[in-house]
Structures are given as C-alpha cells and as structure tokens.
Amino acid sequence: KLKLLCDGELERRYHGVWLRHNCRCPECFPAYSQQNIVHHSHLVDLKLTNAKVEGDNIRIEWKSITGNHSCDFGIDWLKDYDYTTPGIHEERRKKETPLITESLPISDYHEVISSDEGYYEWMKQ
C-alpha cells in the first residue's frame, strides 16, 4: 500500500495492485490506443518496493514475477482518483457539469414510425 499525506488533508491509501493496474507509462498505456494494457499476470505477487516524491509526482517501483516496473503518478491525479476518503466522489459530482443539462425530448414511438409527419417532428427535437 501507498499512503499519501498532504499538509492539512486526510491520509489517502492506495493499494499496490490498483496503482500498478492504473500505470500510465507508454508501456502500459500506449498513446495509439489510450487503453490500459496491463495483463492480470503482471499483478501476481506484486510488491511495491519504493516510493519517492519527485516534485509534483510520486515515482513508484514494483517487483513481481514478471519483472520490475516503475511509474510516475501525479499527486493531483492521485487525489482526483482517491477511493479511500469517504464522500469524496459525491463532492466531485457536485462540482461537475452534467453531460445532459436539460431534459431529454420524448416522442411517442408509434407516431414516429407511423407517419412522415411524426418522423419529421421527432427529427426536429
């Protein structure tokens, strides 16, 4: 586990497996796909061997049966993705702008499929 304690804030904890799975280095999160490609076999017998603050980042080193790996995590990124502080996700949701700000239009299915006029009215929404 990694414990993060910033001045005046609650302690945050991050499991090593979660951190390793969320590694964003080019080897684990290639730019061409923007998807995590860490295979679950890389998480077996995982040990967090070192964590060091370097500016606004924390460099973490792991050792597992598949070999050694290291990654930098931004402290702000870790705070944003904190899953240990009670109520933090509710506070974040309050600050976010909803994707749909108005109510969705409603149409009667039979009116839409039964006439061109119904279809046209549906398309105008």
Report on the architecture of this protein:
- The chain has 125 residues and is α+β, with helices and mostly antiparallel strands.
- The protein has five helices and five strands; from the N terminus they run E-E-H-E-E-E-H-H-H-H.
- It has helices at residues 16-21, 75-80, 88-95, 109-114, 116-124; strands at residues 2-4, 12-14, 47-54, 57-64, 67-74.
- The protein has a three-stranded antiparallel beta sheet with strand order 3-4-5.
- A hairpin with a 2-residue loop joins strand 4 and strand 5 (67-74).
- The chain is elongated and about 65 Å long.
- The relative contact order is 0.13.
- The mean pLDDT is 83.
Give a brief rundown of this model:
The protein has helices at 16-21, 75-80, 88-95, 109-114, 116-124; strands at residues 2-4, 12-14, 47-54, 57-64, 67-74. By secondary structure, it is an alpha+beta fold. The termini are far apart.
